Amino acid sequence: MFVLNLLKPSVQQIQKYVLVPYIIATSLNTIAILLKVAGIELGQQTMELRPMGYFKDPNVMSAFCVPGAVFGAYLLHLGANGWRRSLLSLGVFLSTLSVLISLSRAAVLNLLVSVAVYVVLSNKARVGSYVRAGLIGLVVVVAIGASLGITLDNLTDTFSNAQILADRLKYQRYDDDRFGGQKLILGNLNLLGHGGYSADTFVGMSPHSLYVRALYEFGLMAALLFFVALALLLWQVLRTALRNRGTSDGLHDLSAVVTGVLVGLLVSSFVIDSIHWRHFWLILSLSLYVKNHSLYRTPSEVPQAVL
């Protein structure tokens, strides 16, 4: 966060040194999962047949991959050609695939919200927005089809795979414990809070909500400040995207994709405890960059393809 906002890199440098490496990371994670399906074990793990790659659990892995998919769509939108476009398209596919084969309901919600907000805020023609949304939808459909063949050790057991997918879309038995724990926590709040990770100790499990955790651990005063800071930051990046809509300013496209990813993350945070995710803070730092960059950007900055 300090580096992005003190060194004042250009939009193109953000694309090259932050977004592209992020897409590479999410793609490599998916490749490792696919290699495991092929019988090449590289140390990644699964949870109840759901791949989790090199992450704590499938929900964390899939949430990390959501920005990779949206960042890839954004860079494609800027007009990469040739092999660069092919690599970015592959990155979008692999990142989306990780989201879907994790069978995480919160991650799918995160992806849909992020893409929808980005498409709406995009400065291209309305028809172009529909085309991009359709292409992304096509990738999602293809990824779902592929996921039916790789989430189980037995690749031919597609019926069982489909049943697992259907089961994941239903209300889970542990959802009662999750939301029951949140209700218990919300009934025991105080002004100054109970301290870090006290929510886990209090109910015996993660509260599965950024906002519930903040209220219980930070206390009402600090949580209110935290929520206000998030709301102000979201308003700043959204205003930057809306103010420059329809222009050729490189900041607009970046602010649109960052707004989309931030909104998707904050929406999914109602049912996922995201405050300890490293990429949560990376998204906040990119949001601060968009907010601050509007103060010192040069009019000559225009979107350029990277890689």
Protein described:
The protein is mainly α. The chain has one domain (11-170, 219-296). The protein is 69% helix and 2% strand. The protein has 13 helices and 2 strands. The chain has a two-stranded antiparallel ribbon with strand order 1-2. A hairpin with a 2-residue loop joins β1 (45-47) and β2. α5 runs antiparallel to α6 and α11 packs across α13 (278-296).
Topology:
Blueprint: H1 2-6, H2 11-37, E1 45-47, E2 50-53, H3 58-77, H4 82-101, H5 105-121, H6 126-147, H7 158-168, H8 173-186, H9 198-203, H10 210-218, H11 220-243, H12 250-268, H13 278-296
Antiparallel strand pairs: 1-2
Helix pairs in contact: 2-3, 2-4, 3-4, 3-5, 3-12, 4-6, 5-6, 5-12, 10-11, 11-12, 11-13, 12-13
Please tell me the overall pLDDT.
78
Give the fraction of residues assigned to helices.
Answer: 55-70%
The low-confidence runs, each spanning 5 or more residues with pLDDT under 50, are 148-160, 298-307
Which class do the helix and strand fractions yield?
A: mainly alpha
Count of individual domains: 1
Q: Mind describing the biggest β-sheet?
A: 2 strands, antiparallel
- Binned strand content: under 5%
> How many helices in DSSP terms?
13
Distance between the termini: 23 Å
- Reading the helices and strands in chain order gives HHEEHHHHHHHHHHH
**Strand order in space, largest sheet:** 1-2
Oligomeric nature of the chains: single chain
